[in-house]
Design brief:
Elements (H helix, E strand, L loop, with lengths): L1 E2 L2 E2 L10 E6 L5 E6 L6 E4 H6 L4 H4 L17 E7 L3 E6 L7 E3 H9 L1 H15 L11 H18 L1
């Protein structure tokens, strides 16, 4: 590119490479080390699951994007290399179709707090929860529903 008679050289940024992947013992965190840092980035399994790059979350067009709810207790079951540029993560809920390229993992690491706040806000706006309702929760849910029914009857 020429500007006022001086030549400006385009410099290509060094590609982002993953130099280490480690799953924490409890399988709830993936630690990723990139070539631009010696410090591993800790990425929670829930965060990786809800920001999967697969079509079940992203859709095929921007208006088809979905918010994935109920993944708070999800764990990492396995990692599968995809060439020398990505990894597929198998989660405890059976999901294993997302490909996490090194650039995408780096972005998720750099913007972790922003993306997590965005995710929590979207869940609130949609009235969804981070965790799945289990059978153990059922008695308390039933009692809450019964309380509402009783309150409604009293009001009538």
């Amino acid at each position: 590119m020429l500007r006022t008679g001086r030549r400006f050289a385009a410099t290509a940024a060094a590609p982002i490479l993953v130099t280490g992947l480690r799953v924490r013992k409890g399988r709830d965190y993936l630690f990723v080390t990139f070539n631009d840092s010696d410090t591993p980035a800790g990425l929670p399994a829930e965060y990786l699951r809800v920001y999967t790059s697969s079509a079940d979350r992203t859709g095929h067009t921007p208006d088809q994007r979905k918010v994935v709810a109920g993944k708070k207790g999800v764990t990492i079951e396995n990692l599968y290399p995809v060439g020398n540029y990505a990894v597929t993560i198998e989660f405890s809920d059976g999901h294993k179709s997302g490909i996490y390229g090194w650039d995408y993992l780096h972005e998720l690491s750099a913007k972790k707090y922003h993306y997590m706040r965005l995710y929590l806000r979207e869940l609130r706006e949609m009235g969804k929860a981070r965790r799945v309702v289990t059978r153990a929760d059922t008695p308390s849910l039933v009692s809450k529903v019964l309380e509402k029914v009783r309150a409604k009857r009293k009001a009538e």
